[in-house]
Amino acid sequence: MKLSNNFSKINTELPLLSDWLVKLYSNARKLTPLEFKSYFFEHLNRIISFDSALWASRSDILNTAKEFWVEDTYLYHQPSDFMENYLNIASASEKPDQLNLYLTKHPNKYFTTWDAIPKKEWEKTEIYSHHCKKYGVENIIATLNAPDEYSTIGHAISLYRADANNLFTLKEKALINELGPNFIQSFKVNIVNSFAVAVNDNSTAKAIIDRYGEIIYEAEESFYFLAYQLKIIFNGKMTLDGLCTLSSQMEWKIDNYTITAYINNGLIYIEISIPPIKDILTERQLEISALISKGYTNIEIAKILDIKKKTVDIHIGNILTMLNVRSRAAVTSLYLQQSK
After folding, report:
1. Residue 160's pLDDT is what?
2. Strand order in 204-210's β-sheet?
3. Confidence label for 207 from pLDDT (cuts 50, 70 and 90)
4. Which residues face 250 on adjacent strands?
5. Pairing of β 139-145 and β 111-112
6. Contact status, residue 284 vs residue 326, Cβ threshold 8 Å
7. Which domains, from first to last, does the chain contain?
8. pTM of the predicted model, to two decimals?
């Protein structure tokens, strides 16, 4: 993907986050879901240190912990009885887990233990005395990422430190909140790519649906927007003729777009062809997309390109519109997908 001469003159020494994001999305497309979560924590540990962690993926992620949480939780450097012990305490306790309650009321952002509850009060709780101390969890930074219009799956991600004095700093908290949307976006990329039964090029928007057209697992942002643009989705359901009786593979042509669907174990992998972003965006928009994919903020992009931040904001708004997405993480995913 060719950038302008002006961009090529910029200092080519990229920040650590640039390489980190490239590797994150690259491996999201290669690994199985279980392999990806293992890789994710090892990869994340390169830029923010922690001793152990968990990642649970469920449709009822904002509800109180209950059955199947043990099976639905990936543990990093914690023994297999970690979640079972937590569930036993949470189920027997008359008081809710204060940190969990706080995260439920503030979804999609990372918070530390001390944002939710004073340390002295926390140390008196059963969760701390019978769970955290037992498993070497003294400092926590965590989020409950709610399901949204693109997915019925929500996520609980928690990072733990065993040293009571090794607090997560404000800088680390800001970093993980900045990167957090990419964690979820890369998970979506991993799921839809691992489900695919055919080898796909880099110019498709993907989703997983059931026979009734419900997008019940994952849909990339660009898929949702394109589906509405092409009028093949109504009230959250796909309306393509023949979808309910699909037996193997089917293809539709609508407004110069090709839509292909494959069935696998009762679920349908569906993709919409999209033009290369180099044919959609202007040269300046490509420059800015490249910088977004390297982890630069709007202010940093403005300084690099020697333009006003307001101008960058306008460009990014136009990029989101042109690419049929609404987040920087989706721009990063698309750019890195097509520029490798």
Report:
1. 98
2. 204-210, 267-273, 257-264, 249-254
3. confident
4. 261
5. antiparallel
6. no
7. 5-12+276-339 (1.10.10.10), 31-193 (3.30.450.80), 204-273 (3.30.450.20)
8. 0.76
